[in-house]
Design a protein that fits this description.
The protein is of the alpha/beta class. It has a domain of 176 residues: Bacterial extracellular solute-binding protein, family 7 (D-Maltodextrin-Binding Protein, domain 2, 3-Layer(aba) Sandwich). 46% of the residues lie in helices and 16% in strands. The chain has 13 helices and 11 strands. The strands form 2 sheets. It has a 6-stranded mixed beta sheet with strand order 7-6-8-5-9-11, sandwiched between helices. Helix 2 links the parallel strand 1 and strand 2. The chain starts with a helix and ends in a 10-residue tail after the last helix. It binds succinic acid. The site of succinic acid has 10 residues, from loops.
């Protein structure tokens, strides 16, 4: 999209929202029977494909909201960095050019809330159950409260899945990473993770990854299978190691000013729809990633490597120092609270 079209699109959204807000303030609006001619517009920008857990959940949220308000609230979903790339979409949200985004938890550090990088710590979670004990408990609530300080409101955590490592050569033991240039998301924890393995981290937007891998600007990367498939990384990565070494998930955020201007009745509809969309996202996350991995296998362009328990233990040992570094950076308490919440879950089966 050109900068001009981007401005036009953003302006249209604001104008549409303003008209609708006037109608709401004067009592014309009824959530169940609003005027479709002057709808409230929520622009929801994200960076992945529609056919991923986040992409599908965003479309599901749109459907619920539009049905339940009889199109009095329109949710316009812009997938695949169509509107904004990773860092830009958060800036656009703060400026009010879009109203909703769902960045991965690894991308909030540049806003000054690096505590979310907790989720990037290698081998922190053994599966979704232990992850949910963190997102649904006091740690999750504490993190959501931090968004307040940057003018945002967190509505929900959405699951994606566990990351695999890929490269243009096989990655089996930690020494295999030495000297490789690896694309990461903009997270200091992920930077430290790659350095602990002897690799050179290179933070870049998701939309730039395919070209960087294809041209050899980077040798490899890490991601969940659904992104590996839909961003076509399998075309340009000869090896994928099923390491499940870290988690990738999302926080759905809105601009606080926008949210606070909405009438309570509209917020209630949106809240309910978000709860349903969250259940949907979390229900499909694992199966979508499993299906994506099957598709990658069938494409036959990437050799899939399984680690033995001993090999995985060697990765875990090589990466343990990353936890200490995070503790030094954001303080001990958050990490201890997370470990406590995970508790016995650390023995649960992988990716269950
Ligand atoms: C996402 O899943 O939203 C993007 C993850 C990435 O940038 O690798």
């Amino acid at each position: 999209m050109t900068p001009l079209r981007r401005k036009i699109v953003a302006g249209t959204a604001l104008a549409g929202s303003a008209c609708a807000l006037v109608a709401l303030a004067t009592g014309i609006f009824r959530p169940a029977a609003v005027s479709a001619s002057r709808p409230i517009v929520i622009k929801f920008s994200h960076v992945v494909a529609d056919e991923t857990p986040k992409g599908a959940a965003a479309l599901y949220f749109k459907r619920l909201v539009e049905e339940r308000t009889q199109r009095g609230v329109l949710v316009q979903v812009y997938p695949n960095s169509e509107l904004y790339k990773d860092k830009e979409e958060l800036e656009a949200l703060q400026l009010g050019s879009v109203q909703m985004v769902a960045p991965s938890l690894a991308k909030l550090g540049p806003l000054g809330i690096g505590e979310f990088e907790l989720f990037d710590l290698p081998f922190l979670f053994d599966g979704y159950a232990s992850l949910h004990r963190v997102t649904d408990g006091p740690v999750g609530r504490q993190l959501m409260a931090r968004l307040d300080e940057v003018g945002l409101l967190g509505l929900a955590f959405w699951d994606n899945g566990f990351k695999e490592m890929s490269a243009d050569r096989p990655l089996v033991v930690p020494a295999d990473f030495r000297g490789l240039r690896m694309r990461i998301q903009s997270s200091e924890v992920l930077d430290a993770q790659m350095r602990a393995l002897g690799a050179i981290p290179d933070a870049m937007a998701l939309s730039d990854v395919y070209a960087a891998l294809a041209s050899g600007v980077v040798n490899g990367t890490e991601n969940v299978a659904s992104n590996f498939l839909t961003q076509k990384m399998y075309e340009v990565q000869a090896f994928l190691t099923l390491s499940d070494h870290g988690y990738l998930g999302y926080v759905v955020v809105v601009n606080q000013t926008f949210w606070n201007q909405l009438p309570g009745s509209v917020r209630s509809v949106l809240d309910e729809a978000m709860k349903d969309a969250t259940r949907f996202a979390n229900d499909i996350a694992k199966s979508e990633n499993d299906a994506a991995l099957d598709r990658v296998r069938k494409e036959g362009k990437t050799q899939i490597i399984e680690l033995s328990p001993q090999q995985r233990e060697a990765w875990r040992a090589a990466l343990s120092s990353v936890h200490e570094g995070f503790q030094r950076r954001v303080g001990k308490r958050l990490l201890e609270d997370a470990y406590r919440a995970i508790g016995s879950g650390r023995t649960e089966a992988r990716r269950s």
